[in-house]
Inverse folding.
């Protein structure tokens, strides 16, 4: 079905949810109290509004299957939750509530599918993904409440309030935190730092406050409530100062203004409630908090905020889902003959590619003008099989021992056997370019670059090279088959001072670059905390390269290459 179907379906679901909630307010179910009604506003209205902002097409022009499933199931699971509140606590009510828990778990899976390929590269999107974690936690507490289970002897009110806490403070607030962060992509460094700091305090304060309330720990509750409240107030002030003016639609700006103002008043009340055991002239009980703090949070902040972003949806900084990854993997040793063993060699080609790229001109972008490349440097990439490499490793202090242990494993699987020392039998590397079957790989114009140590013939790197474009630039897409999947390095090309720079590090404009683990065993590729940069330049006698590798932000290895024509 086309993407427009899911958007219309979700819109209708929101309208139906609003209508059902209005009927609840009119007391068609007189046994429902205010707290139960506040909770039901989340599955009936807040959830479909949020799911509208998760509607992001992949590069194939469709939605992720999990997103489709979540949107289609939401209205039925929300009605099942409503039914659960009309039944007495027990197995039957818990069974209906479990359908909502199932939906929140599906949403959690969608959050993981969004987060795994990005890792820590885009914090505002990570806040949205974390909101789906809290969404699922809220679903667990809902089921406990409807089944009449009292963990750690909590009463029914505390169990239901915990479900509400994770649906509004956890899910809705963190979701809006991420959406507002999309508006700050062009903000000053100071504004972005304040936003990220307040965001991390909000993310960490939500579970801490729940723990403080649940265990009646006055000091923890006060500290967590104060930190969370002040962080959300700072977030509200950022909306007033920077966020509102980024929206073009007048109604959206008005709604976001109401949301930010409601949040400030709501957080002031939460601090007063946290200090209820002190001798304050103004004391608030749970029912009073529901009538003030609860109404402000649900209608003023969550509803108005999400409705603002439904009317005007800010686009994420990250490129769409759907990077093409190689399908090559193994559960046995890799080795130099890997592609022959799996029958992946393209036997139909009459002109095997001489280099790892057809032409460096394919990578032209605003960051890279291949016209500035030295002819010898261009020749190495376009006629790679005519060159030999001499490598000199330099391990960072403390990593060489780890490298030696890793090398034992790498030799066993015959892949990515990084040199550990300046041994003469491991300084000369031979290479061979082989055309591969595109249908077996799943990418276009794929070729293998097989690198072995000249003396021992042991594998250094066995890699399948291709490229892909995200519409802005073309990336070098390199897959290294490993046990259970492949490690894929996606490199962005730059030219600086006559040096070619290929890097997995992100620029200000976040793109596809990165190091990933792709596996048929997982439902999404995983962005690894590894980065690499290869700088290549020419001298009168050779092409030189420096290959730097990082684990998180710690450089652990530099490989210096001297690259010579085989004839020389």
């Amino acid at each position: 079905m086309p993407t427009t179907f899911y958007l219309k379906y979700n819109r209708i679901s929101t309208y139906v949810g609003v209508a059902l909630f209005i009927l609840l307010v009119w007391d068609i179910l007189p046994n429902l109290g205010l707290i139960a009604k506040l909770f039901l506003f989340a599955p009936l209205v807040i959830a479909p509004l949020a799911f509208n902002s998760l509607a992001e097409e992949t590069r194939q022009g469709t939605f992720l299957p999990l997103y489709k499933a979540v949107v289609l199931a939401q209205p039925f699971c929300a009605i099942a939750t409503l039914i659960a509140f009309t039944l007495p606590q027990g197995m039957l009510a818990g069974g209906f509530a479990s359908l909502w828990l199932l939906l929140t778990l599906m949403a959690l899976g969608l959050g993981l599918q969004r987060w795994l390929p990005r890792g820590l590269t885009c914090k505002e999107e990570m806040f949205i993904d974390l909101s789906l974690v809290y969404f699922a936690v809220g679903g667990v507490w809902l089921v406990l409440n409807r089944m009449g289970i009292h963990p750690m002897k909590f009463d029914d009110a505390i169990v239901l309030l915990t479900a509400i806490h994770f649906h509004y403070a956890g899910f809705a607030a963190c979701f809006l935190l991420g959406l507002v962060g999309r508006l700050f992509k062009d903000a000053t460094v100071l504004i972005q730092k304040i936003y990220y700091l307040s965001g991390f305090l909000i993310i960490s304060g939500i579970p801490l406050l729940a723990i403080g309330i649940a265990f009646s720990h006055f000091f923890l509750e006060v500290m967590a409530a104060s930190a969370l409240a002040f962080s959300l107030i700072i977030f509200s002030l950022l909306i007033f100062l920077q966020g509102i003016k980024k929206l073009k639609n007048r109604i959206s700006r008005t709604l976001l203004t109401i949301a930010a103002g409601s949040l400030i008043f709501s957080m002031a009340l939460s601090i007063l409630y946290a200090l209820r055991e002190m001798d304050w002239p103004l004391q608030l009980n749970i029912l009073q908090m529901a009538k003030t703090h609860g109404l402000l949070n649900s209608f003023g902040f969550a509803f108005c905020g999400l409705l603002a972003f439904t009317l005007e949806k800010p686009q994420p900084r990250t490129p769409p889902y759907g990077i093409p990854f190689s399908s090559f993997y193994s559960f046995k040793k890799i080795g130099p003959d890997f592609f022959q063993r799996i029958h992946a060699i393209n036997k139909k080609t009459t002109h095997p590619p001489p280099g790892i790229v057809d032409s460096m001109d394919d990578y032209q972008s605003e960051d890279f003008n291949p016209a500035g490349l030295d002819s010898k440097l261009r020749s190495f990439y376009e006629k790679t099989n005519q060159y030999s490499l001499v490598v000199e490793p330099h391990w960072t202090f403390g990593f060489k021992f780890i490298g030696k242990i890793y090398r034992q494993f790498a030799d066993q699987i015959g892949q990515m056997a990084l040199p550990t020392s300046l041994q003469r039998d491991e300084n000369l590397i031979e290479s061979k370019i082989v055309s591969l079957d595109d249908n077996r790989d799943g990418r276009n114009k794929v070729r293998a670059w097989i690198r072995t140590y000249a003396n021992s013939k042991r594998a250094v790197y066995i890699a399948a090279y291709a490229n892909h474009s995200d519409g802005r630039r073309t990336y070098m897409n390199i897959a290294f088959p490993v046990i259970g999947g492949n490690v894929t390095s996606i490199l962005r090309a730059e030219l600086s001072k006559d040096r070619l720079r290929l890097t997995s590090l992100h620029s200000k404009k976040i793109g596809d670059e990165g190091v990933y683990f792709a596996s048929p065993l997982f439902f999404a590729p995983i962005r690894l905390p590894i980065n690499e940069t290869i700088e290549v330049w020419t001298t009168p006698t050779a092409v030189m390269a420096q290959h730097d590798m990082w684990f998180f932000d710690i450089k652990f290895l530099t490989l210096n290459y001297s690259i010579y024509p085989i004839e020389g």
